[in-house]
Specification:
Layout lengths: L8 H29 L7 H18 L6 H12 L16 H7 L1 H28 L4 E4 L9 H4 L12 E3 H11 L1 H8 L7 H8 L6 H13 L10 H13 L1
Antiparallel strand pairs: 1-2
Helix pairs in contact: 1-5, 1-7, 2-10
Family: Belongs to the EMC3 family.
InterPro entries: EMC3 (IPR008568), EMC3/TMCO1 (IPR002809)
Pfam families: EMC3_TMCO1
Length: 246
């Protein structure tokens, strides 16, 4: 049977609360530091134009059945024509976003700044938690959990007799690291509350690839089966009125 522990109030005052406050302050400070290090970049007119073309093509696919067949074929040819269609990308002009990033020093520098603003505070904070709070049982979850949660909630405590609902100080650090987005959205605003999970996902991305998006939208337009629905609206309206009046 798992052993029940009585947590000292000093652990709450000197471990749990300081660790939570420090994590919040570091998150806010990191946001303002990354904002200061951010360089203002002018948007690429070509990328904006291609993005608008993709939006217009999606609108055409969504409203294809509300325009006559002749008008749809003309618009479809305007987008998918192999010679000068807006969605057609020649094979030699396809861009590699990864190569584009490394060829642009400003983009590579911005990505390095973002990575440093995330990695350095995490490394220093983890070393601080490991040095001062290693081995502490910081909190207890008020509901029972299965043994699968032990490795997640009791990182740094190698005791199988402790109940799974107890949380170690190191695990509390990780829970704060990945779970404070809701609080940051209240402090910094919803658009600025990017948590560390999203930052890690952004580190592996290399930006917008217009050639793939244009090609996917072209394939989507090619497979659209047009069926004009407006001539059937009178019959549908008549059927609805007859049903209501009967």
């Amino acid at each position: 049977m798992a052993e029940e522990l009585v947590l000292d109030t000093a652990i709450r005052d000197w471990v749990l609360i300081p660790l939570s406050v420090v994590m919040v302050l570091i998150g806010v400070l990191r946001y303002f530091v990354s904002k200061l290090m951010r360089t203002s970049q002018l948007p690429d007119a070509k990328i904006i134009k291609e993005g608008q073309v993709i939006i217009r093509a999606r609108n055409l696919r969504a409203a294809a059945n509300f325009i006559p067949a002749k008008a749809f074929r003309a618009r479809k040819l305007y987008y998918t024509n192999e010679d000068n269609g807006l969605l057609h990308v020649p094979k030699g002009q396809a861009q590699n976003p990864q190569a584009q990033m490394f060829s642009d020093p400003n983009m590579a520098m911005d990505m390095m700044k973002k990575n440093l603003s995330m990695i350095i505070p995490q490394t220093l904070t983890f070393a601080w938690v490991n040095f001062f709070f290693s081995g502490f049982v910081a909190a207890k979850i008020p509901f029972p959990l299965t043994q699968r949660f032990r490795s997640m909630l009791q990182n740094g405590i190698d005791l199988s007799t402790v109940d799974v609902s107890y949380v170690s100080s190191r695990s509390w650090y990780f829970l704060n690291l990945f779970g404070l987005r809701g609080l940051f959205s209240l402090i910094l605003g919803e658009e600025n509350a990017t948590d560390d999970t999203q930052r890690m996902m952004q580190m592996s991305g290399f930006g917008f690839d217009p050639s793939k998006s244009l090609g996917a939208e072209k394939d989507g337009l090619d497979i659209v089966q047009h069926e004009w629905v407006l001539p059937k609206f009178e019959q549908r309206a008549e059927a609805v009125l007859r049903k209501r009046l009967s």
